[in-house]
Amino acid sequence: MNLSYLFDAAHWSLTADGSIPQLILSHVWYVVLALIIGTIIALPVGLYIGHTGRGSFLAINAGNAGRSLPTLGLLMLMVTLLGLGLTPVLIALTVLVIPPILTSAYAGMRTLDHRVVDAARGMGMRPWQVLFKVELPMALPVMMSGFRSAALQVVATATVAAAVGLNGLGRLLIDGLAVNDYSRVLAGAIVVAVLAVVLDLILALAQRWIVSPGLR
Fold first, then answer.
1. Is 192 within the bounds of a domain?
2. Per the structure, how many domains does the chain have?
3. Which residues contact residue 175 at a Cβ distance below 8 angstroms, ignoring those fewer than 6 apart?
4. Which of 96, 90, 38, 40 is nearest to 67 (CA)?
5. Which helix (H) or strand (E) holds 127?
6. What pLDDT digit, counting tens, does each position of 36-80 carry?
7. Strands (E) located in 129-216
8. DSSP result, 51-108
9. Which residue stretches of the chain have pLDDT < 50?
10. What's the CA gap between 77 and 182, in Å, rounded?
11. TM spans, by residue (predicted)?
12. CATH number of the CATH domain containing 72
């Protein structure tokens, strides 16, 4: 196993174009943007459907359909329609993010202990108080599991950005394969895997911090 590319100090320069740190920053930027956009779209929809019970058929089937879409094929379609650039990549990654967040928000709201919700209403809480003080905290563990799943998927899949000329860790894979430099390909695969593990650990710590101990 040749790890020479990964352990070459020249590839870890903070200022050199195409260095591993710069590619990591670009990769993380795509991931963060896709997660923010996907959460803004999916979370309110999932919470509404879960809270009201309306459109549950739509939520389940939209989630299943979204998971079945090939990200690379969708990216190529977006490039054909919109041209090269960040926008097609973000659309493809956002479509990947939406299903797990939407379905986990829906599931979190539908699996609540309704005796607690009824008790809150019996205490005179208004609907918005029930939602934000009772339902959301109780649904948070399930919602966080969906967010973590989405984050891991998009970290791995953001490598497709290199297929349309953008930076990111996918550059190590694409460029390495182009010149048969398998040390570079291996370095890219290892860094992506480590990044995914680190991100999941960060989100696990965040979940432990924001979720009430009684709900873990």
1. yes
2. 1
3. 162, 181, 184
4. 96
5. helix 127-130
6. 999 999 999 988 888 777 777 777 777 777 777 778 788 888 888
7. none
8. HH-TTHHHHHHHHHHHHHS-HHHHHHHHHHHH-SSHHHHHHHHHHHHHHHHHHHHHHH
9. none
10. 29
11. 28-50, 71-102, 150-174, 186-210
12. 1.10.3720.10
Would you say how long the chain is, in residues? 216
In a domain, residue 116? The reply is yes
Determine the Cα–Cα distance for residues 119 and 110; give it in Å rounded to an integer. Answer: 17
* 94: Cα within 13 Å, side-chain hemisphere: 17
- With respect to residue 131, please indicate whether it lies within any of the assigned structural domains: yes
Which residue is associated with the tokens 């493809």? 92
Q: Is residue 8 part of a domain?
A: no
